[in-house]
Amino acid sequence: MAVLVLKLLGLGYQRRLSLQFPNKSRPHSRGEYNVYSTFQSHEPEFDYLKSLEIEEKINKIRWLPQQNAAHFLLSTNDKTIKLWKISERDKRAEGYNLKDEDGRLRDPFRITALRVPILKPMDLMVEASPRRIFANAHTYHINSISVNSDHETYLSADDLRINLWHLEITDRSFNIVDIKPVNMEELTEVITAAEFHPRQCNVFVYSSSKGTVRLCDMRSSALCDRHSKFFEEPEDPSSRSFFSEIISSISDVKFSHSGRYMMTRDYLSVKVWDLNMETRPVETYQVHEYLRSKLCSLYENDCIFDKFECCWNGSDGALMTGSYNNFFRMFDRSTRRDVTLEASRESSKPRAILKPRKVCTGGKRKKDEISVDSLDFNKKILHTAWHPLQNIIAVAATNNLYIFQDKVN
Ligand SMILES: *[C@@H]1O[C@H](CO)[C@@H](O)[C@H](O)[C@H]1NC(C)=O
Ligand SMILES: *[C@@H]1O[C@H](CO)[C@@H](O)[C@H](O)[C@H]1NC(C)=O
Questions:
Q1: Closest-approaching ligand to the CA atom of 332
Q2: How far is the C-alpha of 405 from the C-alpha of 221, rounded, in Å?
Q3: What is the per-residue pLDDT across 283-316, written as a single tens digit (0 to 9) for each?
Q4: 49/353 Cα distance (integer angstroms)
Q5: Can you tell me the distance from the alpha carbon of 295 to that of 77, in angstroms, rounded to the nearest whole number?
Q6: Cα of 215 from ligand 2 centre, angstroms
Q7: Atom of ligand 2 nearest to the CA of 316
Q8: Which are the contacts of 332, defined by CB distance < 8 A and separation ≥ 6?
Q9: Nearest to 280 by CA among 292, 264, 267, 291
Q10: Distance (Å, rounded) from C-alpha 192 to C-alpha 119?
Q11: Beta bridge partners of 40
């Protein structure tokens, strides 16, 4: 894979959205990306009722299916979801009758001739405009948003509740899951992620901090507190420890494009589940098993609570997820081969090839290997995305976004 670009967003972690698209004026130079548009999605707010500051930090971004030349996306911070339209403008109208070129109204008595306005080309302008603001529906922090396959509704999930919205309606949403116990002292489990099925608009899943996934069918009842399917792997009693529950918490759940499988990410592994089998996953991949002996220090520095995302490639044949030291892992499902790669500035020269990395655990360290003890736990790849049709990936490493793509000639 060749590195395409490294772009320093430089504006604090994920506060601003920067979209990267290939440079259209140089269509033949594959392998170079520029920032397409940057805009402020959320501003800091204050919740007067609870005397809490709401950070502008963006928790999730979701694209809507494209229906015309413009792109639409949903972005959310802890409390407020926004729908944005991103559109291009490369022409402007000139020769209006009622106003002059600066936009000032002309004196109607001095208009003597009728002009036909003409379109003049101008430098490409990318505009981001807020279209809808969906606020005041979440008491706890929003961790997921997911657009439904009906293209009309979406869900938003916080620690204890999931709401269903219509994309056009901002002043009301429907609560479809509520796991808040009457007595908060009985709270044992929180919702960690939720997603709609890619094809069946009545089906969605949500994962929990106890390592389980519940599949719900909105046709069976309006409030989906009772699940239709419950996915849980029986715990191996021999490996039980103080950290078992923490590391089994699911940080991300993603349906395959086909809708047949789903993937979950917990602290140490990625699991693939067949929707028709609830008792155990059909595939399990170790992400960084060498950390099992380090859980104590990862608990002390809070890393054990990091929320790693995971993603499928366009044809569901491969999986990707992040790790520490700016490493990310890719798994080929049919050959069961896996690779560890690193997102770094050194390796990000255009057309450079990424070298597989290896972590050594004890014993003699070979050349090119890195020992577990020298991994940098402040450098982590939590967010990854795979292009839906091509072999192009995006990897977010703190303030940097790396885009890598399959070898090009
Ligand atoms: C895109 O490529 C053209 C032609 O090389 C260059 O002039 C332009 O600055 C590039 N655009 C951006 C946004 O970098
Ligand atoms: C997804 O990964 C599989 C296995 O590596 C590969 O055969 C397939 O071409 C990939 N699909 C896309 C769209 O990149």
A1: 2
A2: 44
A3: 999 999 999 999 999 999 999 999 999 999 999 9
A4: 53
A5: 30
A6: 27
A7: 1
A8: 317, 318, 338
A9: 264
A10: 50
A11: 16
Cβ atoms of 130 and 154 within 8 Å: the answer is no
Which ligand does the CA of 338 lie closest to? 2
Q: From residue 326, how far is each of 99, 220, 302, 378 by CA, in Å?
A: 55, 44, 17, 9
Neighbouring residues of 192: CB distance < 8 A, sequence distance ≥ 6: 143, 206, 207, 208, 209, 249, 250, 251, 252, 307
Buried b vs exposed e over 70-84: b needs ≥16 C-beta within 10 Å?
ebbbbbbbbbbbbbb
Q: What is the pTM of this model?
A: 0.85
Residue 204 CA, distance from chain mean position? 17
Q: How confident is the model at residue 17 (pLDDT cuts 50, 70, 90)?
A: low
407 alpha carbon – ligand 1 mean position (Å): 23
Q: What is the CA radius of gyration of the chain?
A: 24
Non-local (6+) Cβ contacts of 387 within 8 A are: 314, 393
For residue range 379-388, what is the model confidence (pLDDT) as tens digits? Answer: 999 999 999 9
Residue nearest to atom 13 of ligand 2 (CA): 314
Instruction: Write phi, then psi, for 145 (nearest 5 degrees).
Output: -135, 145
End-to-end CA distance of the chain: 11
Backbone angles phi, psi at 329, to 5 degrees: -120, 140
The rounded Å distance from CA 322 to ligand 1 centre is 32
- 11: pLDDT confidence band, cut at 50, 70 and 90? very low
CB of 24 closer than 6 angstroms to any ligand 1 atom: no
> What whole-number distance in Å separates Cα of residue 270 and Cα of residue 322?
10
Q: Which residues pair with 401 in a beta bridge?
A: 7, 396
Identify the residues whose C-beta falls under 6 Å from ligand 2: 313-315, 317-318, 332, 391
Q: Are strands 358-360 and 369-371 parallel, antiparallel or unpaired?
A: parallel
Q: Looking at the CA of 391, which ligand is closest? A: 2
**Mean pLDDT score across all residues of the chain:** 88
Other Cβ atoms closer than 10 A to 260: 14
